[in-house]
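Page 42, continued from yesterday. The earlier attempt failed because a stray header line got pasted into the input along with the sequence. Redoing it now with the clean sequence only.
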Amino acid sequence: MQVKLEVDILLVHGNVKIHNPIERFMGIFENQGMSIHYGMGAISAYVKARGFSCKVIDANFDGLSIVETVDLISRYRPKLLGLSLNLYNLVGTLEIIKILKQKNIYHGHITAGGQFATSFAEELLQEFEQFDSVVMGEGEGATTDLLQTITDSTDWRKVAGIKYRDQDNKIVTTPSRRGESDLDRLPLIERYDVESGKMLPFQQIELGRGCYGSCTFCVLDTYHKISNAPKTRRRSLTSIFNEVESLYAKGCRIFLFRCDNFFQSTNSDEEDQYLRQFCHEITRRKLKIDFSISCRPDDLNKSRIELLESVGLCHLFIGIESINNDEIKLFGKGTSPSGVHEVIALLEKTNIYFECGYIFFNPWSTLENLKKSAEFLLEIGVEHFPYGTYQMKIHRDTAIEKLLQREGLALKGPIIQEDEIERAYLNYEFKYPDAGFIRDSSYQLWKKLCSYVLDNYLKSRKDSPSLVMQVNSTISKSVLSYIRDSINAWVKGKFSHEEDFLLEINKYYKRCVRELNKLR
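This time it went through. Structure tokens are written below.
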């Protein structure tokens, strides 16, 4: 008989399983499953610092099946089971819970957490009795307090920062808790890839949390508000680079610096000083590294770009979102088309690989804006817009969701299931039906092309990154060209029937397949 290992809390991230071919392909493009779960590493370190024992099972990182995950869980006897949820692992996670109960492996408290669980907490608790509670927002403190009450056999329902279902099947929200304002007080995350001997060639380092912006669509801003945390927070540079130096000594040379926005205020003098000090730490410690950051386009200028590149910036993600004035206003970006063009022109003169976030379709899209966006992305280069014709996802409790509801464009919410990604986050109508038609027809082409590459020669998440990037660019170029050309034909009266668009889709599909086959 197998002797079970005692552990206070078991944190589990179920393997992601995606049915939608577009989402599956983008999962390969993003290297999903090729990095550790940063949030679980943070919670594990936090509970251990409070004297508890913890084991992390990251089935997505280790590529474990449901059966293998259950087998690994069965080797432990936890007081609390914590599950990190997202839309793609929900069904698999529910199956794991079902097997655990059927085989009498675990019948204790089950809590869920993460951004998805926070947004859909009430639906999760109402629709799935498997979950006893949901930790809202940043999970370090609430998870630890939940574990403490269960250990002490006291009333866990009094823990601040959770939702739960009471005896009358009503959802109860406990008082919110204050998020940690001093990030230096948090312990360094548990890097279970390093500890298990599977150290990745790149490592994530948290610089801070939050962004000074007020974008109407941003779920991260909402998430930090739910966490009752300051709008922006930074770790000290000493803490950051002590952690970098420790990993550098272990052989790591590539760092993904995590922060919603590298520049955390509009005070130019303060941010320039921070940047100089950041770069000074790299040179003072003689760190020969490559690194990545994210920021807004209006935070960049020639001197900042040059300084960052001089100390190792090799990858930059900038949130452009749109170059159409009415959409920029709708999104609350506060940027300008001319400013975006200026920043891109500066970046094109460097060796920095830059990627841009762009919201191509939104509920208020017009044919004119769609055409301008397609022309812009094709002009700059599709390789800089990895998400192509991305459609705005509407997240809970955001300003854009409230506007959608006021205008009557929001549809009734779906029952949460893994294969309903579009209904869960894209649950709205287009104000202008012609724009909605272009979205639907271009989506057919995009989906068909992603299915082709997945079925024929891109079947593994470990495929060559360079090949995946080329494939993504080839597909994006085809879909954007279709949008531009079909809108032109429609406006000029050359297209008048749905059959015209279907023929055009077929033409672009065949043309793109020929280009894709050249990449093999």
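Notes: The chain is about 45% helix and 15% strand.
Reminder to self: strip header lines before submitting.
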